């Protein structure tokens, strides 16, 4: 079993207050972030910074997003307990863990085998049994996975491919950072309506790039 979170009540309280001050108001999202021990998803060397509002590096040159961005993206996703959600880019597994507290099923796809194996161990140790971790290409999610009520992309895409929007159920929502690796990126929300796909531009963000294919190493 994984060691229990060692963060103090004061750190977690400050964590929640920081999110509220920055405008996160959905109580279900706030409870989900309170429930998931973020310090178990960061590099052990960074545990003291786990509840600081900053992005942190993890294995394979990837990052765990700052708590505000995780909270904001989750809030904008407008989840429901009946939903089946897809995440592109598992990373350490933190975002998928938060979604698992809000959705019926979470499927998360990661191209780095090292991250896949580590995330599976974390989820098992925490008893998060409604998450399926897929070693695969986020640009080519297996057809056998079906469609989803919500899709969340946690790496920047130059453009959102039709292969993802086509996986949305009617009324579904997709959120992704869009923009070049070394340029301005925008968090975008797509809603699948009867009239077609409706786009809303949200906030400027900075994410690592979403790459196609499986990683050849790690």
TrEMBL record:
Record-linked NCBIfam families: pimt, PRK00312.1
Keywords: Cytoplasm, Methyltransferase, S-adenosyl-L-methionine, Transferase
Organism: Afipia felis
GO cellular component, one term: cytoplasm
CDD domains: AdoMet_MTases
InterPro entries to which the protein is assigned, alphabetical: PCMT, SAM-dependent_MTases_sf
Pfam family membership, one: PCMT
Main location: cytoplasm
Gene assigned in the entry: pcm_1
Catalytic activity: [protein]-L-isoaspartate + S-adenosyl-L-methionine = [protein]-L-isoaspartate alpha-methyl ester + S-adenosyl-L-homocysteine
Subcellular location: Cytoplasm
One GO BP: protein repair
Function of the molecule: Catalyzes the methyl esterification of L-isoaspartyl residues in peptides and proteins that result from spontaneous decomposition of normal L-aspartyl and L-asparaginyl residues. It plays a role in the repair and/or degradation of damaged proteins.
Gene Ontology molecular functions: protein-L-isoaspartate (D-aspartate) O-methyltransferase activity
Protein name per Swiss-Prot or TrEMBL: Protein-L-isoaspartate O-methyltransferase
Ribonucleoprotein as UniProt keyword: no
Family, similarity comment: Belongs to the methyltransferase superfamily. L-isoaspartyl/D-aspartyl protein methyltransferase family.
Positions of the catalytic residues: 65
E.C. number(s) listed in UniProt: 2.1.1.77
């Amino acid at each position: 079993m994984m060691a229990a979170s060692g963060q103090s009540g004061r750190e977690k309280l400050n964590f929640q207050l920081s999110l509220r001050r920055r405008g996160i108001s959905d109580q279900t999202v706030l409870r989900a972030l309170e429930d998931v021990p973020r310090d178990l998803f960061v590099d052990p060397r960074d545990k003291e910074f786990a509840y600081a509002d900053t992005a942190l590096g993890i294995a394979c040159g990837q990052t765990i997003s700052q708590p505000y961005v995780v909270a904001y993206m989750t809030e904008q996703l407008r989840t429901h307990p009946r939903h089946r959600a897809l995440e592109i880019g598992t990373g350490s597994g933190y975002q998928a863990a938060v979604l698992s507290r809000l959705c019926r099923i979470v499927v998360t796809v990661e191209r780095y085998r090292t991250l896949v194996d580590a995330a599976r161990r974390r989820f098992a140790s925490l008893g998060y049994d409604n998450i399926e971790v897929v070693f695969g290409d986020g640009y080519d999610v297996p057809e056998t996975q079906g469609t989803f009520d919500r899709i969340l992309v946690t790496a920047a895409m130059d453009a959102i491919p039709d292969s993802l929007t086509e996986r949305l159920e009617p009324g579904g929502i997709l959120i992704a950072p869009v923009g070049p690796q070394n340029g301005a990126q925008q968090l975008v929300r797509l809603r699948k309506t009867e009239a077609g796909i409706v786009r809303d531009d949200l906030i400027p963000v900075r994410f690592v790039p979403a790459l196609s294919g499986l990683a050849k190493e790690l």
